[in-house]
Write a structure and sequence with these properties.
alpha/beta, 2 domains, 6-stranded parallel sheet, 14 helices, 8 strands, 54% helix, 15% strand, globular, transferase, hexosyltransferase activity
Length: 254
C-alpha cells in the first residue's frame, strides 16, 4: 500500500491495510447513521470484509469508493482480527444485516421513507412485505435486474423522485459500491446502505449462521458448508490473498 493511498484516509478512521474503517460499536454506528439521515443528502454506509479489502488493495477505484464513504464498518470478522494484529483495534464487528434490521426498526419509529433495491423480484417483494409488517414505510422497490429495461441513471432518477431517506442496496460487490458511489448525488437519498445478500436472508432463501458461529467469526465456514461449490473458490482464493496482504503489511511495519 503506497503512502499516497494511505493519506486519503480520514484522520478519525482506523487504517486497515489502506482502507479507512470507522472504529465504532454497533450502537455507535446506528447513532451516527441516524444523525446522517437527519442532517443531509447523499450520504452512505459501506461495509468491508476480507474480499472487499482485497479488491480495494488491488483496484485504486475501489479504494477511493471506500475511503470516500461517509461511514465504513467492519462487516467481516477477519477485518477486525487484522486490525488487532496491526495494532489498530476495532471495537467489534458491525454486520451489515444487523445494521439494516436496526435501521428498519428505527424507521418504523421515526417515519423515514425506505426504498429497496436488488435481488430477485420475488425476494425483494417479500422483503418489502416483511419490513412493512414491522411498521416501516417502504415507498418503493426494484429488483436487481433493472438494466434489462432502464439505465442506471434512470434508476437513480426513479429513486430521487420518491424523496427517499434510506436506500438499501442488495447487489453483489462491486456493483453495489459502484452504484452507490456513482449516483449518490443523482439519487439525492438521505442515506444509501450496501447490504449485499441480506435480502435473501430476510426472505428466507439463505440461512444465517447461528449466533454462536457469528460470535466466533466463522460465518464464512457456515456458508462454505451450505454452498461448497459456489463458495469454495471465493474463499480459497480470496482468503489466501487477504492473508498474503496482511502478512506483507505486518512485515512492512515490522
Amino acid at each position: 500500500m503506497t503512502d499516497q493511498m494511505q493519506r486519503v484516509i480520514a484522520p478519525e478512521r482506523t487504517d486497515v491495510m489502506g482502507v479507512g474503517v470507522d472504529a465504532l460499536t454497533m450502537d455507535q454506528t446506528i447513532d451516527r447513521l441516524r444523525e446522517m439521515i437527519a442532517t443531509g443528502k447523499g450520504q452512505n454506509h459501506l461495509s468491508v470484509n476480507a474480499a472487499k479489502l482485497v479488491a480495494a488493495i488491488e483496484d485504486p477505484t475501489k479504494l477511493e469508493e471506500f475511503n470516500q464513504g461517509t461511514l465504513v464498518s467492519a462487516d467481516g470478522q477477519a477485518v477486525v482480527w487484522a486490525a488487532r494484529l496491526l495494532g489498530r483495534p476495532l471495537p467489534q464487528r458491525v454486520a451489515g444485516i444487523d445494521v439494516m434490521n436496526r435501521l428498519v426498526d428505527l424507521s418504523a419509529q421515526e417515519g423515514q421513507r425506505i426504498f429497496l433495491l436488488g435481488a430477485r423480484e420475488e425476494v425483494v417483494g417479500r422483503v418489502r412485505r416483511e419490513f412493512t409488517a414491522r411498521g416501516a414505510n417502504v415507498v418503493g422497490h426494484r429488483d436487481g435486474y433493472w438494466r434489462r429495461y432502464m439505465t442506471d441513471a434512470e434508476m437513480a432518477q426513479t429513486i430521487r423522485l420518491l424523496d427517499v431517506d434510506i436506500l438499501f442496496v442488495a447487489l453483489p460487490s462491486p456493483m453495489k459500491e459502484d452504484f452507490i458511489y456513482g449516483f449518490r448525488e443523482a439519487m439525492n437519498v438521505g442515506l444509501s446502505v450496501g447490504v449485499g445478500g441480506s435480502f435473501d436472508v430476510v426472505a428466507g432463501r439463505t440461512r444465517r449462521a447461528p449466533a454462536i458461529i457469528q460470535r466466533l467469526g466463522l460465518e464464512w465456514l457456515f456458508r462454505l458448508v451450505l454452498e461448497p461449490r459456489r463458495m469454495f473458490k471465493r474463499y480459497a482464493v480470496g482468503n489466501s490473498k487477504f492473508l498474503w496482504y496482511l502478512v506483507r503489511e505486518l512485515l512492512r511495519r515490522g
